[in-house]
Amino acid sequence: IMLPLKEKDRPIVKKLLEAGCCARCVLRFCCLGVQSAYRQSYEDTARELCAFISDSENNESQDAAVLEQHTEDPPSKKMKMDAAEMDVQSEGDSAVVPTVMEEGDAEPADSDVCVVCLGVLQQFCDEAYAIKISEVVKAKNYQFDTMVLSVSLPAQLSVREHSCWLHVKKEVREKSMCLDMDDVIQVKEAFKWTMQGLVSKELGGVPVVNKFEVGVGFTHPETDSDCHFLMAVVKALEKVSDEKFLKKFPCPPTRPVSKCIAQDVQCLHVSVFVAGRYNKFSRTLPQTPWVIDGERRMESSVEELIAAPLLSSFRAEGFNFSSSGREDVDVRTLGNGRPFALELLNPHRARFNKAEVRQLQETINQSSDKIRVRDLQIVSRDAMGHMKEGEEDKTKSYTALIWTQKAINKDDITFLEETKVTQKTPLRVLHRRPLAVRERVIHTMSTCFLDAHHFHLKLRTQAGTYIKEFVHGDFGRTKPNLCDLLKSETDILELDVESVDVDWPPSIPE
Ligand SMILES: *[C@@H]1O[C@H](CO)[C@@H](O)[C@H](O)[C@H]1NC(C)=O
Ligand SMILES: *[C@@H]1O[C@H](CO)[C@@H](O)[C@H](O)[C@H]1NC(C)=O
Ligand SMILES: *[C@@H]1O[C@H](CO)[C@@H](O)[C@H](O)[C@H]1NC(C)=O
Ligand SMILES: [Zn+2]
Questions:
Q1: What is the pTM of this model?
Q2: Domain ranges in the chain?
Q3: Active-site residue, from 87, 93, 224, 328
Q4: Pus10-like C-terminal domain location, by residue (predicted)?
Q5: Which among 1-10, 59-68, 82-91, 107-116 has the top mean pLDDT?
Q6: How remote is the CA of residue 193 from the centroid of ligand 4, in Å?
Q7: Does residue 76 have a pLDDT over 70?
Q8: pLDDT digits over 280-306, tens only?
Q9: Considering every ligand atom, which ligand is closest to the CA of 117?
Q10: Which residues, in sequence order, are CB contacts of 416 under 8 Å at separation 6+?
Q11: Does 328 participate in catalysis according to the annotation?
Q12: Pocket (CB within 6 angstroms of ligand 2)
């Protein structure tokens, strides 16, 4: 006998096998935490268990030998167990033996679906099934260097587990270290102990790291309705009294006809994050898709232009775009550009070297005249935080083309360079950010006269200052504003962002 079972496990093993538990579920209920025991072939385990229980009926000297092996048991305990064993023995001579013999005949064969795991640990827990899983994974053509297996089981399995626990609770509590149902090895654990290594081996021996997840799921239509009496099964099982449970559900569980059905194997690679800076040269390009009343207003957007080549190169399933602030659709972003980061969801390819990333940047650059990208790089999820941290305190520089109704000359506007301006949260964003009633400061301004009704105003401001509101006053919320200062109706004709002073992501030398 190779399984580290103890004499005291014998009545539990017997009772579970009689109830229609599979060999591996028997090990679980014996709270056997030795992983290799579950990796042994199902047939060997089943055979050993049958031998283990028939020994107890047919061969007393074997019993003694088994007991002898367990020297870790203190002698006093051993004596007690010998006595207990004698009880079973005398009982067995008359009534139990025939039943057990029948059970021996019905030794868990392929057609015998386990009453608890519904076949998961019998038919889906071997090298052949590991090969099946890994073939599906290979066909999905992912690039990965680690792998974890996850498994989802039908909810009714918990109900059956509970019923089975009630069936042997008394024996288990008396004989083993398990005091609680939580001490029983879970189906998921036993499944992973066996299958994680096998699947990983089939996939080239990749280490177990939670970067690439292979998901295996099972359903069991035959018994789906079993747990309809419990709404949220697991939660409900914690509360339900044994009496109430036993009124609603057979104990031990009924024998199923069919085994579980394996669902499609799912693969999920952790997100890859790509960061960079973008320029936007168009005054008709929104940063994100512009949808009003479910209707698309602009044919493209900054995020889509950047994401398209990345989605196809990383073979990702979707993306999540974020940036350091944003500009209005009619505002250009010049200079070194605006920092952005893109989360690529479930990428099939994740490794790109520097040259390949540069190639991606060129592909984006060439895909449209409306944007350009620089400093493109793969970053960690954590590094993305740098983009948002301290964002409010950074400075931004703008150039605005201003129109004045009143004719001006060069000297009429130079005084602006000495003017201090603070701004309250503009009305148009108050509904979006009711708490952000912070004041913003325009640090410096300079002017460049163009003609009697036009000049360029350059501004260096605290991030978050609203330039358009400064020009037309926003009903007195920006003091002073350009209309007041120039004593003329004024308008902003064009606006460019000249720089966004966030020093992330790090610049990449050309
Ligand atoms: C009983 O056990 C002894 C010693 O372990 C062994 O030699 C013998 O073959 C066994 N008998 C049966 C009927 O299994
Ligand atoms: C996109 O990012 C936001 C913020 O980081 C996050 O809450 C959200 O779950 C992400 N969306 C997806 C689909 O991952
Ligand atoms: C893409 O455009 C930016 C901005 O013009 C430039 O700095 C960068 O070198 C270009 N990159 C490639 C690879 O073409
Ligand atoms: Zn089972």
A1: 0.80
A2: 7-94+112-267, 271-388, 391-500
A3: 328
A4: 273-501
A5: 1-10
A6: 14
A7: no
A8: 999 999 999 988 888 887 789 999 999
A9: 4
A10: 445, 447, 457, 485
A11: yes
A12: 320, 343, 345
